[in-house]
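The instructor's notes for this session suggest beginning with a concrete chain rather than abstract definitions. Hand out the sequence below and ask the class to guess, before any prediction is shown, which regions might be ordered.
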Amino acid sequence: MKPLPELLEASAALHRHLCPRQVLGARMGLLAGETLGLDLPQTDKRLLTIIETDGCAADGLSVATGCWVGRRTLRVEDYGKVAAAFVDTATRRAIRIAPRPAARQRARRYAPEARNKWEAQLLGYQRMPADELLSVQSVQLKTPIEQTVSRPGLKVVCDVCGEEIMNEREIIRDGLTLCRACAGESYYLLTAELPLHKTLFTQVSELNGRGE
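After discussion, reveal the predicted structure:
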């Protein structure tokens, strides 16, 4: 595992600054690797992480674990909490790690030179023993890992909108294959179809299509 200062430097570069919640995310990732016996940050996709916030902690956690949304090893379930579940997909063991409720107050003890609460948390979270800073729970996911991760190359087309659906996220209803939006689970309302302005790329493509 990489040392905490190195992880925080990488997280700060990604996030443009360093804040206490990035430290929490990195500490959570380090503790997950230690508890599950995994060498992190990973270069494969063995560890699946489900984080409960889309905020600063996610950057620290990703740097520490090697789990990223684009690699399909990090999922966001936005509960507004600095907490995460870590799943070893090889052993099926799952744990959930979160800061202890008293961590904010205890941070001051480990950073007596801090000028304010924010700085006390920034420094204290780096220095506190893991068992004082974080709690670890054994958990079981409600959704099977196979369903969450799916399999590569699986694609279908929605019978209503015609858009492609990947990773077995389709819904079958009355014999129709539907995307979640067309099945009534959309997070948006369609108000209008907007015309696309021609760009240099589309103009060149059209000329190539006409053989000019």
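Then share the key points. The first strand starts at residue 47 and ends at 51. The chain has nine helices and nine strands.
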